[in-house]
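Section 5: illustrative case.
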């Protein structure tokens, strides 16, 4: 009788050990998933406020909604299928594509720094062109620019 009780307690201890190991795995996986989800949210948070500045308060939510819809469309219709196809059929191409994206972002950053330290007079013409746009055209231009930027940052 005493050996049966000891065997039962041993089985309970073994089950508790397996449950504790499973909880560790769940915690590790949720940390990993949370960091990936944070990456998606952070790139959207970086895009949206920059494009909404300068519009009236009643238009801001509409603009954010259009940007979010465009971002979702980019991710679901273009980026996700492309990533699945690449991982299934051309896994070797993923690393070079990521490297090309990094080179492009470095180029864009260097260009921004160059324009900061050596401005040129093309910006005066851009300001005149923006002043000639109606508010609806300006809003459409800002939204399409934000969606394009989100696509580049997400890819």
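Designed sequence:
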């Amino acid at each position: 009788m005493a050996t049966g009780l000891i065997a039962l307690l041993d089985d309970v201890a073994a089950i508790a050990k397996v449950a504790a190991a499973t909880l560790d795995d769940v915690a590790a996986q949720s940390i990993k998933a949370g960091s990936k989800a944070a990456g998606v949210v952070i790139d959207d948070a970086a895009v949206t406020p920059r494009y909404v500045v300068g519009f009236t308060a009643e238009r801001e939510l509409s603009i954010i909604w259009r940007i979010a819809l465009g971002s979702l469309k980019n991710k679901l219709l273009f980026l996700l299928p492309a990533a699945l196809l690449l991982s299934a059929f051309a896994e070797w191409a993923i690393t070079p594509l990521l490297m090309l994206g990094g080179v492009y972002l470095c180029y864009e950053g260097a260009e921004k720094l160059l324009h900061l330290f050596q401005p040129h007079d093309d910006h005066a013409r851009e300001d005149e062109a923006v002043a000639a746009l109606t508010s609806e055209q300006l809003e459409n231009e800002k939204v399409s620019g934000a969606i394009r930027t989100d696509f580049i940052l997400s890819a």
